[in-house]
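Much of what follows relies on a compact textual record of a protein's fold. A record is reproduced here so that you can trace the correspondence yourselves:

. . .
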Amino acid sequence: MAMTSKATIDPREAEHFGKLAADWWNPSGSSAMLHRLNPPRLRYIREAVDAHWGTDPAGFSPLAGKTALDVGCGAGLLCEPLARLGAQVTGVDAAPENVGAARAHADASGLAIDYLAGEFEQVAAGRTFDLVTSMEVIEHVTDPAAFVAGLAAALAPGGLMILSTPNRTALSRLAMITVGEGLGMIPKGTHDHGKFITPDELAELLAAAGLGVADRRGLSFSPAHGFVLSEDLSLNYLLTARQLA
């Protein structure tokens, strides 16, 4: 499949997240919610990787010898764990400020990660990756169908795609906008509930791009444990996809 060249970045979204770059790695700062989401997301990714490639769940480097692309990487909250799992990682973000923060943090951590700023369809054009991830990004793009087509074009044969995004429900509006943004736990203006995508809608976009959904799991909030993986997709969800036979 040819890499799509259609731009999907919303410049206003890139500017919004670029302003948060300097504080991205502060677990108590403006990106605190992402820090809380990261552990269950990583658990899901590890389970998906082991299931897809048959790697040892107790092994330290299940992605050794694999390439990974994280689209909308921010300052590298996912790229760095993927690198530690053995992948050769490329992170792409629309905001140059985020890429600068990501490079600095990776250098300080001794991690070799290739960070690129701009439209991923352009800066990573012609390249394919064993693992393609994009976490909490599709709800911010101008054209979700074109975005998914671009992700699919970047997926190597036999590869695995993992996405996460808020569901478009009354619960997600209450939790993320009314409470999250209203009380300052999430920077104001981060979300537009009308751009949230349901699991069925995302599955249709993936199917149109030649991919099938292999698994999906909810991200729920537990007062006792924080964010946890669950079967409840109503707040936020993750899914894995792969090429259709």
The chain has one domain: 11-243. Strands lie at 67-71, 88-93, 114-117, 129-135, 155-166, 211-222, 226-230, 236-243.
